[in-house]
């Protein structure tokens, strides 16, 4: 719509009949929002798999993380599942960080199930409430920018409920900021 407004303004310079278009477009164009008002969530379609991959690699300190988006709403997240970052810091032993990230990206519930054998010898899956609660306390979201004391904005990744600002995460957030502005 902003491009149409610019075209209408340019046309008005040579022909006043387009002035009505300019005023109509100005009425319907929303106010611009600041970068601090944009929240980038894992799995957002406007963020490429490469940016998700870069973010998770830096957050989990794992160069083996791979992220693919084979079709809309479906994500594949692979990486080292046994490291401290994957199992203690950002995930659990039963649901490593890559599993949680994939569930969040696909907007699925984060749950942990146990396999139990019933009285007839059949195996069935049962929700484990303790492990599920532990895994659910690791929700992830990414906010691309936050005001800093210097008047500039600085990248912030808010992951699993904790905000971190680390030099290495700035490149992923900076890319998300650029995408959010476009």
Question: Your description of this structure?
Answer:
The protein has about 180 residues and is an alpha+beta fold. It folds into two domains: about 1-30, no CATH class; about 35-180, no CATH class. It contains seven helices and eight strands. It has helices at about 1-15, 20-30, 50-60, 85-90, 95-105, 130-135, 170-180, and strands at about 65-70, 75-80, 115, 125, 145, 155, 155-160, 160-165. The strands form four sheets. The chain has a two-stranded antiparallel sheet. Strands 3-4 form a two-stranded antiparallel ribbon. The longest helix is centred in the first third of the chain and has 13 residues, at about 1-15. The protein is elongated. Mean pLDDT is about 80; it is low at about 140-170 and about 175-180.
Share of residues in strands = 15-25%
Helix-strand pattern, N to C? HHHEEHHEEHEEEEH
Shape: elongated
Distance from N terminus to C terminus (CA atoms, Å) equals 13 Å
Number of helices: 7
Structural class: alpha+beta
Average the pLDDT over all residues and give the rounded result. 79
Please provide the count of β strands: 8
Model regions low in confidence, pLDDT < 50 over at least 5 residues: 141-170, 176-182
Cα gyration radius (Å): 22 Å
Largest sheet: 2 strands, antiparallel
Q: Report the helical percentage.
A: 25-40%
Count of separate structural domains: 2
Biggest β-sheet: strands ordered side by side in the sheet = 1-2
């Amino acid at each position: 719509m902003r491009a149409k407004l610019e075209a209408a303004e340019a046309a008005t310079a040579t022909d006043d009949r387009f002035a009505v278009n300019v005023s109509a477009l100005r009425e319907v164009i929303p106010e611009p929002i600041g970068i601090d008002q944009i929240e980038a969530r894992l799995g957002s379609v406007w963020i490429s798999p490469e940016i998700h991959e870069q973010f998770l690699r830096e957050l989990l300190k794992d160069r083996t993380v791979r992220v693919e988006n084979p079709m809309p709403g479906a994500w594949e997240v692979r990486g080292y599942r046994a490291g401290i970052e994957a199992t203690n810091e950002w995930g659990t032993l039963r649901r490593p960080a890559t599993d949680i990230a994939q569930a969040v990206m696909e907007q699925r519930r984060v749950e942990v199930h146990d396999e139990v054998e019933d009285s007839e010898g059949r195996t069935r899956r049962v929700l484990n409430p303790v492990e599920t609660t532990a895994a659910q306390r690791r929700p992830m979201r990414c906010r691309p920018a936050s005001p800093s004391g210097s008047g500039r904005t600085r990248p912030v990744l808010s992951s699993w409920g904790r905000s971190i600002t680390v030099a290495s995460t700035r490149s992923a957030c900076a890319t998300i900021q650029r995408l959010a502005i476009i």
